[in-house]
Design brief:
single chain; globular; about 130 residues
Length: about 130
């Protein structure tokens, strides 16, 4: 396995879907998308004390490192997706999204041994 910045336990626990897709793409797989027949909205409250920041941040950091995505590009990819997320509509949700972003980018930077600051997020328009 290509652990990159993940510990072995996290690679196998967190990544069965993500790892499969990324490794498949790197080997030339063609991925298709289809509409789910169920609704899976945010936030996922059934996890209670679930550690969202480390789970999603670690997975994103793994994707960024495995695909060798530069930090600036990784930040922009994340920032481009955030405005359409329902989590952005609450203070708690915005804080969570900011924490996941910071965790993923810092972990990627640290794994690569790169110095420097994390690119700042773009200014946002408040949700009305």
């Amino acid at each position: 396995p290509q652990l990159a910045c993940l510990e072995p336990a996290h690679y196998w626990r967190y990544g069965p879907e993500t790892v499969t897709v990324i490794e498949g793409l790197l080997k030339g797989a063609v991925i298709a998308e289809l509409r789910r027949l169920t609704w899976d909205g945010q936030p996922a409250t059934s996890f209670g004390e679930f550690r969202h920041v480390s789970l999603y941040g670690d997975l994103l950091a793994w994707v960024y490192t495995r695909l060798e995505i530069p930090i600036e590009v990784a930040a922009r990819l994340y920032d481009n997706r955030v405005p359409s997320m329902p989590l952005r509509t609450t203070t708690e949700g915005r804080d969570l999204l900011d924490a996941v972003r910071r965790h993923a980018l810092e972990r990627t930077r640290d794994y690569r041994g790169e110095g420097g600051a994390i690119p700042p997020p773009p200014p946002t328009v408040p949700f009305l």
